[in-house]
Amino acid sequence: MITRRDLIARGAVGALALTWPEVADAKRLTRTQERALRSAVRGRVLTPGDNGYSGARVVFNTRWDGVKPPAVVQARDTADVRAVVSWADRFDVPLVARSGGHGYSGNSTSSTAVVVDLDRLDTIRFGDGIATLGPGARLGDVYTRLAAKGVTIPAGSCPTVAVGGLVLGGGMGLAGRAFGLTCDRVTSFDVVDADGKRRRVDDGELFWALRGGGGSFAIVTAVRLRTRRVTSAAYFSITYSRAQRAEALARWDAFAPRAPSDLTAILTLTSDGATAFGQYLGSASALRRLVRPLGGTPTVGSADYLTVQRRWAGNQNPPRSAFAASSIYVTKRLTAKGRGAFVAATDTGATLILDAYGGAINRPDRDATAFPHRDARFSVQVISYAPIATARAQVRQARKAIAPYGSGAYFNYADPDLTNATRNYWGANLERLRRVKREVDPGNRFRPTQGVRPAG
Ligand SMILES: Cc1cc2nc3c(=O)[nH]c(=O)nc-3n(C[C@H](O)[C@H](O)[C@H](O)COP(=O)(O)OP(=O)(O)OC[C@H]3O[C@@H](n4cnc5c(N)ncnc54)[C@H](O)[C@@H]3O)c2cc1C
After folding, report:
1. Which atom of ligand 1 is nearest to the CA of 218?
2. Does the entry feature the keyword Flavoprotein, yes or no (predicted)?
């Protein structure tokens, strides 16, 4: 095995910095801390050197494979979560929660905080119109189980994203304009707070903060959401050539953010061309008429709701991969110059994915929940799967090219390279979030990357 020391000796450290995933050595627990942790919980505790540690510590984005937390605790239940929080309080160790590990920025791993892994808290129950979900429940399973009851919740399209991180950051998907963000459907959370107490949260400042403010406030052990009845959906897609990109963007920008709210449309722009696609809670024939303003030759169809969700998901078990990503929000219709900048941005090699807002997403006021981007026409995700150093450069360059036409960023597309990240994620809601943090976690026990710090 070639070690870092070997590479330094060969003068190859520059290359290492360019090609290696972000590497950070584990801060180790003391023997006393480790012993106390192992005896406090029933779930597995994995520390560096343990069998299974390497598999337990990694997250979806392989960019973070070099990050080695001091320990990963695979919580079995809420009692385990409470035990870890009390243990952390006793030894003053920071914690970070993980549900599905899909946070873009590696924000559910850490080289200094102990990871509380909630993957096993994955229950999915339904009754009286309410879905009760464990944070570790994966979206593919949630859609499947709820479809059997003829209901759904609005959420993302990746089947292995977990409810925990998704709902805490907002939760945007192809039913978004019809039913709102995932966080808008929440009636209550069960959490373990920084004092290690179990609480039901359905009102007040903590409830406000948990709907869009991320994982800095408490560890969520269950979430209840109002479901919507749904049986089928229609879908469409239109592809455009490289030469048609600016026109496709003009048509989509004029149409998608103001379309009837039963339609949620997305536009992807690459250096090769563009694709518009989306979901409509109505008939295929109505959808075909509706998307006429987008031009092109639409492919339109319809199916039962679950089949359509599986169509969006593609691979039901997507492999882990390395990528760099960022995001920005656009609140005004783009000018011709703006559209030119968007098209030019894709020539960096990065892909732009535009999610139409409006409809139910924009109905709540900016300060109704911690998620602040209620006046957006659309979000832009900037993403690249090139080797990571190249991907970072492409994403940075592409975001810079479109930055004059937007502001802010989506916390669920967290970008570790973003300056002023928390202001971008939470805008004018940031100060209130800091005050809530001071109230509920003044010692900053819960410490995800780019999380909210206590006020003062
Ligand atoms: C392939 C892919 C597709 C995606 N598609 C969409 C999409 O369509 N729409 C969308 O909105 N987003 C999408 N996302 C982004 C996704 O919503 C976020 O990355 C989300 O945070 C992932 O949740 P998780 O629980 O899987 O991640 P994790 O990495 O486990 O957690 C993310 C953050 O939330 C915190 N957290 C997680 N669980 C808890 C908990 N129980 N209590 C307290 N804090 C917690 C973590 O500490 C971390 O800071 C996608 C991501 C990927 C990788």
Report:
1. 43
2. yes
> What ligand 1 atom has the least distance to the C-alpha of 104?
19
157 CB within 6 A, ligand 1: yes
Q: Is the CB of 118 under 6 A from ligand 1?
A: yes
CB-based contacts of 109, cutoff 8 Å, min separation 6: 57, 58, 59, 64, 67, 69, 96, 98, 101, 115
The token pair at 55 is 């598999």
**CA separation, residue 342 to residues 130, 334, 430 (Å):** 41, 9, 28
449 pLDDT more than 80: yes
Tell me the pLDDT band of 3, cut-offs 50, 70 and 90: very low
Separation of alpha carbons 8 and 14, rounded Å? 9
- Residues 210, 371 contacting (CB under 8 angstroms): no
Residue 304: its H or E element: strand 299-304
CA 251–ligand 1 middle distance (angstroms): 31
For residue 338, the CA-to-ligand 1 centroid distance in Å is 30
- 182 CA: nearest ligand 1 atom: 11
Q: What is the pLDDT of residues 218-237, one digit of tens each?
A: 999 999 999 999 999 999 99
Region label for 257, one of left (φ > 0), alpha (ψ between -120 and 50) or beta (otherwise) = alpha
Structure confidence at residue 333 (pLDDT): 98
CB 166 within 8 A of CB 223: no
Distance separating alpha carbons of residues 330 and 116, to the nearest angstrom: 35
Ligand 1 centroid–CA 77 distance in Å is 20
pLDDT in tens, 363-417: 999 999 999 999 999 999 999 999 999 999 999 999 999 999 999 999 999 999 9
**Higher confidence at residue 442 or residue 3?**
442
* 306 closest CA partner among 235, 373, 214, 209: 235
Domains and CATH numbers, the chain: 4-117 (3.30.43.10), 124-229+427-440 (3.30.465.10), 232-425 (3.40.462.20)
Q: Is 69 in the pocket of ligand 1 (CB under 6 A)?
A: no
